[in-house]
């Protein structure tokens, strides 16, 4: 309970509660107004510089509007000037085009007349030429037919040759057949350069490795091996290379393959006390040999250092001829005693032949004397036969009566 002006009011009275609520609302409104006025004063203080900036921006916008009006006037003037210049240019171009067109029409008419005259003259000449060359055309056609027949025959030969070339390409594309091809070529070269007993093909060494060819040279240097298996794939890659990168990669593969092949030959075919202090690597192509010496000189030097000598078919033939001279000299040294013995026997045979020639000469002299005596006897017998045939008995000598055969037996 509360008392106001002598009146008592209950706190739970709705009127009291409403009064308190109204008073609280009024106080809240007054507080909010106070806060709003305070915030308005603060906003006014903050909005003063902003209003100044807005005024400044308004001035600039007005100036930009004036500049835009001036620019619009300038652009209109430029547009008018450009339109006038364009009209004048079009008029000038049209005039020039009309003049050029007239000149072109005149020139075309002149050229047409000249072309017509030239065409007429050419037709006349062609008629004369065709009439005069009909016989030559027939002759040429006959010769052409003969040549075509010859070309057909040559084409057949080319087709056959291309088949042979493809077969050779197939051989070289396969590693085994290419190795057999190299061995056959090496066999052909060796068989032509050396005696049959001075080399051995597919000879097995003491380490179990089989050499393509072993030349039986005397010590020193001793038997020397020739290997005919060459890695051709890196060389083909080198020939097919089109870019610098492909060329470098193929060259690297070529060097790697050559080093590996040289090392394999040095390890397999150079045996101390059994073979010579070196071996030969046979290249079945002069082009590969030239490529090695032209662009891979370091590999050739490494082969020299490894005591592996690289040879081509030409240099291999020259090397084998040198080996043949060495074999011949060695065999002559080995057979020096036998040769000396044979020379002594040859000297005795020559002396014996001289004696027999002298005896034969004596026999020929005696035979000649006998023949001369026979001729004399024959001549005498011929003369006597002729006298007998002519009955010339009175011409017979008296001392020859004992030699005359009586015709009848004498009486007693």
List the helices and strands and how they pair.
Elements: E1 2-4, E2 7-9, H1 14-132, H2 134-173, H3 175-193, E3 199-204, E4 210-215, E5 224-227, H4 233-240, H5 244-269, E6 279-282, H6 286-295, H7 297-305, E7 308-311, H8 313-334, H9 336-390
Parallel strand pairs: 5-6, 6-7
Antiparallel strand pairs: 1-2, 3-4, 4-5
Provide keyphrases for this structure.
75% helix; 5-stranded mixed β-sheet; Trna Endonuclease, Chain: A, domain 1; two-stranded antiparallel sheet; alpha/beta; 412 residues
Q: Can you tell me about this structure?
A:
By secondary structure, the protein is an alpha/beta fold. The protein has helices at residues 14-132, 134-173, 175-193, 233-240, 244-269, 286-295, 297-305, 313-334, 336-390, and strands at residues 2-4, 7-9, 199-204, 210-215, 224-227, 279-282, 308-311. The strands form 2 sheets. A 5-stranded mixed beta sheet has the order 3-4-5-6-7. A two-stranded antiparallel sheet has the order 1-2. A hairpin with a 5-residue loop joins strand 3 (199-204) and strand 4. The N and C termini lie far apart (247 Å).
Q: What is the fold-level CATH name, i.e. the topology of one domain?
A: Trna Endonuclease, Chain: A, domain 1
Q: If helices are DSSP runs of H or I spanning 4 or more residues, what is the number of helices?
A: 9
* Envelope shape: elongated
CATH architecture of one domain: 3-Layer(aba) Sandwich
Strand order of the largest sheet: 3-4-5-6-7
C-alpha Rg (nearest Å) = 66 Å
Averaged pLDDT, please? 77
Please state roughly what percent of the residues sit in beta strands, choosing from under 5%, 5-15%, 15-25%, 25-35%, 35-45% or over 45%. 5-15%
CATH class of one domain: Alpha Beta
